[in-house]
Amino acid sequence: MSFTVGDVIAERTVHLTRESLVRYAGASGDFNPIHYRDDVAAEVGLPGVLAHGMLTMGLASSVVVSALGDVAKIVDYGVRFTKPVVVDPVEGADVTVVAKVAAVDDETARIDLKVTHGETTVLAKAQLRVAL
Questions:
Q1: DSSP-derived 3-state class of residue 86
Q2: CA–CA separation, 47 vs 43, rounded Å?
Q3: pLDDT tens for each residue of 17-51
């Protein structure tokens, strides 16, 4: 696959539900009640039950891996968590990921990820490098 700076290589919106959070908690072992109990989230001053940060980070990278298929070899990945994803008990939450080629050298391509929940950016400086 060839990479050209500025090309969008993938875009996807993932719908999260409270069930998604419980399933992720089981898989990851992170049973912090802020991820499934409204009362605990409110007690600690949160706006609601939050999606796990690592779930959000994993969803973002999976968009690129799915788009690139077997040629995807991620050599570096980093993000800065900026805002939480609040998952409504009825409506859930949509997380949108847009992956755009930002730089290419002889060995790697840097893919910048725009990760949003509604109009809010939830991951900043979300970048991964894939081997060419």
A1: strand
A2: 10
A3: 999 999 999 999 999 999 999 999 999 999 999 99
